[in-house]
């Protein structure tokens, strides 16, 4: 009975322990990269929504912690991490623009599919739309070495829109943002668009090396995943593409 009593008491106070460890100078701040359906700007709510925000709040709330959310482009989030304004985000490990010394969770957040889309009837030069600062798990350089010319846009939706309007012959994109865009009202995939999967890549929680909360964040994420036997924090579904805020 004493053993069970100790376990129950420990479980009750663990959230308080996390909170005490994470209380130095300012609240924990999560940087949500505008990357549908992970995170999307909701004009009606005047806030970012999406599963990466929902799941991150769930994880930290379970540990008795509060989290503020900043929503911006990838490069803006990286700069805020360097400046000490953002503590953590979700990203792939291979992104060269990530701040030096970034720490990553042991358990991946989710898996992404890197895909190349092309207008089969476009006989012009190999111009490819992509996101500024994204390495695409090494495929940016592979494509450049193969003769592709990149047009870099601030975010995934701008890159996809350039492709769908026929202003770029090719598009390199993760599957989620592309499918999200196609699921928007009135949007249709061009009849001449063909796609191929280049690779899959895992995303991870990425914690800024200069964050005063880095130790507690790594501990909270590790404990949460281990307690639930997670291979991934989140397994996406087609429902996300049409309803990211559900």
What this model shows, in words?
This is Solute-binding protein family 3/N-terminal domain-containing protein. The strands form 2 sheets. This protein has an 8-stranded mixed beta sheet with strand order 4-1-5-10-6-9-7-8. It has a two-stranded antiparallel sheet with strand order 2-3. The protein has helices at 2-21, 51-62, 74-82, 139-145, 156-164, 175-182, 214-228, 238-242; strands spanning 28-33, 40-42, 47-49, 67-72, 88-92, 103-119, 127-131, 149-153, 170-174, 193-207. With 246 residues, the protein is of the alpha/beta class. The chain folds into 2 domains: 2-110 and 202-242, D-Maltodextrin-Binding Protein, domain 2, CATH 3.40.190; 112-201, Periplasmic binding protein-like II (D-Maltodextrin-Binding Protein, domain 2, 3-Layer(aba) Sandwich), CATH 3.40.190.10. Helices cover 35% and strands 28% of the residues.
């Amino acid at each position: 009975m004493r053993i069970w009593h100790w376990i129950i008491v420990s479980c009750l106070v663990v959230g308080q322990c996390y909170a005490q460890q994470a209380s130095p100078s300012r609240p924990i701040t999560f940087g949500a990269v505008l990357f549908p359906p992970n995170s999307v700007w909701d004009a009606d709510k005047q806030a970012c929504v999406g599963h990466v925000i929902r799941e991150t709040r769930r994880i930290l709330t379970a540990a008795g912690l509060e989290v503020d959310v900043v929503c911006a482009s990838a490069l803006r989030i990286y700069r805020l991490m360097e400046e000490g304004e953002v503590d953590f985000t979700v990203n792939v490990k291979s992104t060269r623009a990530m701040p030096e010394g970034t720490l990553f969770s042991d358990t991946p957040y989710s898996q992404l599919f890197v895909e190349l889309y092309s207008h089969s009837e476009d006989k012009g030069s190999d111009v490819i739309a992509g996101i500024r600062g994204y390495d695409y798990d090494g495929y940016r350089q592979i494509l450049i070495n193969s003769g592709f010319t990149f047009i870099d846009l601030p975010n995934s939706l701008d890159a996809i829109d350039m492709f769908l309007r026929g202003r770029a012959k090719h598009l390199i994109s993760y599957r989620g943002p592309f499918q999200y865009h196609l699921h928007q009202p009135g949007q249709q995939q061009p009849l001449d668009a063909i796609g191929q999967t280049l690779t899959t890549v895992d995303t991870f929680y990425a914690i800024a090396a200069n964050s005063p909360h880095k130790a507690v964040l790594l501990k909270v994420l590790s404990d949460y995943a281990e307690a639930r036997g997670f291979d991934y924090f989140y397994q996406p579904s087609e429902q996300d593409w049409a309803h990211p805020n559900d």
